[in-house]
What does this fold into?
Amino acid sequence: MKCALVTGASRGIGRAIALQLSQDHQLYILVNYASNQEAAEETLRLIRAEGGDGELLPFRVQNKVEVDQALNDWKTGNPEKNIQVLVNNAGVTRDGLFMWMSEQDWDEVMDISTKGLFNVTQNAIQEMLRKRSGRIVNIASVSGMKGVAGQTNYSAAKGAIVAATKALAQEVAKRKITVNAVAPGFISSDMTSELNEAELKQMIPVNRFGRADEVAHLVSFLVSDKAAYITGEVININGGIYS
Ligand code: NAP
It folds into this structure.
């Protein structure tokens, strides 16, 4: 049975991606999250309500021991299932001006984005390489494309994801694994709930924040067979604020 692992799928963009991949591609969804079990269960309930299926798979992406233990135990217990699709979506912001940024805020954002990508991808890609088939989509950000003041840590982390996407895509293309990144602008979610949309939308040509399901449709296309010739790309989805 073909599965998709979506990190940070308990809420926001990750939840929307998990639902879309279930609906569009009939994939069994592994709903990863860090701590919010109730929200993750709601994601699973929504997947099942639409006729799909999946299970919860909690781990903190930045912790290699936790990642390997959770994924290896799951593989041992589910020999008939294999992860064909990986969406590295888990991410956090710890915003602040660089001159006052704590080492902890730098490390946390970098670890969850970049070390998380390393840990989860290195585990999941082994089977894709053996099966000569797979899809990896990394969720970057407009911050990693243009840099955003107050987000030096987050911009660095997302920029690293963009570069890693391009490099890895070249390594694994011959094995029919595509690796792409999606770079959203302002998307309504818990992450952006404190922001003033009325003010910020003035600098967005489309004049509104995006929706998580709009990002999910793009990810779903990149995961489809139709996108087999797209790899190493970064696709912006930001209402026109950066191109
Ligand atoms: P969100 O609503 O804050 O949700 C974050 C998700 O990541 C939650 O499911 C959370 O799990 C999970 N998570 C956090 N730390 C984790 C960890 N260490 N290990 C595993 N999972 C972890 O965020 P969002 O807005 O949906 O953002 C999703 C992705 O899109 C992030 O990579 C973000 O940087 C990126 N992005 C967002 C926007 C935007 O405007 N919203 C724009 C550009 C890019 P728990 O529920 O357990 O905490």
Remarks:
- Helices lie at 12-25, 37-49, 64-77, 103-131, 142-146, 152-172, 197-200, 212-223.
